[in-house]
Design goal:
The complex is a heterodimer of chains A (309) and B (420).
Chain A (H helix, E strand, L loop, with lengths): L1 H9 L11 H29 L2 E2 L9 E2 L3 H8 L4 H30 L6 H13 L2 H11 L6 H8 L13 H28 L4 H9 L4 H29 L3 H6 L11 H11 L3 H31 L1
Antiparallel strand pairs in A: 1-2
Chain B lengths: L1 H22 L11 E7 L3 H17 L4 E7 L1 H11 L8 E5 L5 H6 L7 H7 L7 H8 L7 E13 H6 L9 H13 L3 E3 L7 H25 L8 H17 L9 H9 L3 E7 L2 H7 L7 E4 L7 E11 L6 H11 L2 H6 L22 H10 L2 E3 L2 H4 L2 H15 L5 H14 L2
Parallel strand pairs in B: 1-2, 1-3, 5-6, 8-9
Antiparallel strand pairs in B: 3-8, 4-6, 4-7, 4-8
The chains are: A mainly alpha (309), B alpha/beta (420).
Chain lengths: 309, 420
Amino acid sequence: MTTVNIITQGRRKRRPFGSQGVGTAAPYIIPALLLYGWFLLYPMLDSIRLSFYQWSGFRTETPTWVGLDNYKRLFTEDAVFPTALLNSVIWVVLSLILPTVIALLMALGLNQKIIGRNVMRAIFYIPAVFASITVAAMWRWIYNPTLGFVNQLLEAVGLESWTQSWLGDPKFALASIFVANIWQAVGFSMVLFLAGLQTVPEELMEAAKLDGANAWQRFRAVTVPALRPTTVVVIILTIINSLKVFDLVVGMTGGGPAQSTQVLALWSYTQSFTNHQFGMGGAVATVLLIVTLAIVIPYMAWSLKGEDK
Amino acid sequence: MRFKKILSTAAIGAVSVGVLAGCSGGGGGADDENTLVLWSVTQETTQRAAMDAIIADFEEANPGTKIELEERSVDEMKTAMRQTAGTDAGPDIYRYWQGAGLGGELVAADVSLDLTEYYDEYGWEDRFTPTAMASITQYGGYHGVPFIQATEALYYNKTLFEEAGITDLPTTYDELVAAADKLVAAGITPIEFGGTVNWHVMRLLDSIIETKCGAETADALNTGDGDWSAEPCVTEAFTELKKWGDDYINEGFMGISNDDSSQLFFSGQAAMALEGTWLNSQVVDNGMDPAEVGIFPFPTGTGRLYGFGEGLYVSKSTDKADLAAKFLDFFTSDESQSGAQGAWSPISANKNVTPSDTDTLAHYWVDMLADSTGLYVNNDQNFSTATTGEYWRIQNLVLTGDLDPADAGAEFQKFRDANK
């Protein structure tokens, strides 16, 4: 009897299976879990598995085990992979700076009581609703060297020497695509920041004003800490979305010119589905997964630790 | 309470089953045993009308049968065929390029049905020209039926040539460059290309390689084990390509597609276009007066004409091979092809069909083919897709000035060696 007591004392109180517990939640979670497992988890794990094989993707051919050969080739022989990796990293860094800051500024501005702010909020959010491939098609026309808006505008104001082949010149292509990305991405982050700004405690703001703090001091001392949970969400979503950028690149340049706008997600796709090298494609996808986890997990751990304080 | 729980569990269970059932996905081929699915590249008005007419005639002659035609752009067609290979989602019949890197790849992947028994049954070998048949039998057995024997050359705008003072058509490469210089001097864009699709400018590179290397070396490089890093003609070819990109091709070509750049030719803003037999009908469809247009072969000096073949293949995964063969027999018959009036190509693969009299540009091709000693094929049909991707990358790096033409050959050979 004594033994039993010691054991039960060591146990935590078990969660009830009944009316308030897992049993009630399970029927609602299971369909989503099934979808998630079948469409996300399984392909992801299969991609990693395929990275150790050589396979053309045709059902008529069986995959051949090659171990780490694909990774070796990726880092030593693949002429496009370094560019894709660098472009992906540049994309993430720029995404964390430009669209995020612009979104925050827009949210701060549209949080003020100004005429037409709801209309403006809607206008700035609309690009986020468009399918990426539509955005790509639109901006491809905007950048058209002869008929596009950008070059025509430059010519109209007498800046003809500034006209470029925005998508055809490797010097400008990636930046040009990134501008389209800012246009599309800013709305969503702005909405998140706007929601976060509603949680800024009014009393603290008033108190700060009474203490004589100027706008910048109030922003730093009151707004930023209150926005912290929102900022974490925005940053994580920005990192993840920017690492998997695909639609804009494939729609605007297809990775060109001369693979100069190639990014990891598109290169993985190209290797697998166009070049019929699923092993190499899987290796690129696995590298992308590792890079994503390496950035997101430490960041989440650091920010959650900060919240516990 | 208990009933509610049972009900909710049952409902969730039903939803899950529904979700998973939906996951198994529908196939692309038609289920009806008298319906054939035919995939083709997107066609211009005249060509589409011709295909629809033949399909309508077949359906009339064979009541109960239906042919469903699906069209896709060039690149989407290649992607779709590759993605559906080995699955049931593919078509019954597909129209495809016959070269080793495209049609040949699908043959190697067991996508194409060997049609030997149908060639015997219908006697097709007697229907087609030897050149056309060579593309069918090149992989062993009989794969596909010949559809188009496409040849490519330089279309030019007669008025613009006159304006620039070009009186004789170039017969050598140097004369071609001289003509381009004259056009530039007259303020006219000599030639148009759309760089984003890669295979458009590739035609120029392929032709310059043929010119600078000669037929034998070019063949060794393109379809054999030639060493791109060892042949001086390769560096010469890439140097010439850079020159064309800098001086003679429409400005900003690297950022536009071939559809956009072709409009420059159709609207008289560019003097030349390196295109193929399909342009005969496209020129008319896009509002040009055919009398304004002339065609001359790219002056490679080897006597060969640039070109490739397209075939209509039957999918191995189809369960309607007999019906497919019947349709193909009807499609390639003298009657159907003559009725099409050369919509797809002025020169038919069917040797009994003569060029249409309404196509005023057809005679150019007849003459050029009669004078040619053979064909050199577009490299994206010779190479595997991975190699083609690298070829295009290097082509574009040279054009943007990011790779020295002297290094291009070695860079390409590095890839070839690593991917043997």
